[in-house]
Amino acid sequence: MTLQNNFTSRPIDTRSLITRMVVGAGIGLALVTFFLIATTHTRPEWGQFWMLRPLIITTLAAAGGGLGTYFMEYILGYQGGWSKIIAVIISIVGFIISLWLGTVLGFAGTLWN
Fold first, then answer.
1. For the segment 91-113, what is each residue's pLDDT rounded down to a tens digit?
2. Cα-only R_g, the chain
3. 61 and 21 Cβ atoms separated by less than 8 Å
4. pLDDT > 80? residue 4
5. What is the pLDDT of residue 3?
6. What is the DSSP letter of 10?
7. CB neighbour class for 87 (10 Å; exposed up to 12, middle 13-18, buried from 19)
8. What is the rounded distance in angstroms from the CA atom of residue 55 to the CA atom of residue 22?
9. Residue 93 and residue 69: Cα distance in Å, rounded?
10. Among residues 2, 6, 7, 108, which one has the fewest Cβ atoms lying within 10 Å of its Cβ?
């Protein structure tokens, strides 16, 4: 069986995919909410709805990180053994990077200059 045939024979589990994206978005939302609640003063030049940008961008980036974890498991994790361990490690590192980038992009120009 070729590599191409392995990918086409296995369907994508949409329930698991959506679950990972929702969990990732929840983690991102919790992180950005923590930062927003800890904010004691705001500047008038940020505007009235300045907090919407970090809420939206960080949550979407974390959901994208959850999407990446699913596809890493889909590509490498089904084989088991060392490839599954490598898939989990790459997934965790990739999720942390996407969460970090989303947080930086969300707060750029407001809390983090």
1. 999 999 999 999 999 988 887 76
2. 18
3. no
4. no
5. 53
6. S
7. buried
8. 14
9. 10
10. 2
- pLDDT for 48 equals 80
Q: What's the pTM? A: 0.83
**Residue 79 per-residue DSSP state:** G
Look up tokens 């003063």; give the residue.
Answer: 41
Tell me if residue 108 falls in helix, strand or coil: strand
Q: In whole angstroms, what is the distance from residue 103 CA to residue 96 CA? A: 10
Q: Which residue is it, tokens 């200059």?
A: 113
Q: Is the dihedral of CA 57, 58, 61, 63 positive or negative?
A: negative
Secondary structure (3-state) at 9? helix
What is the per-residue burial (b if ≥16 Cβ within 10 Å, else e) of 60-69? bbbbbbbbbb
Confidence of residue 12 (pLDDT cuts 50, 70, 90): confident
Mean pLDDT of 12-29: 94
> In angstroms, how far is CA 39 from the centroid of its own chain?
23
pLDDT at 79 > cutoff 70: yes
Whole-number Å distance between alpha carbons of 33 and 106: 12
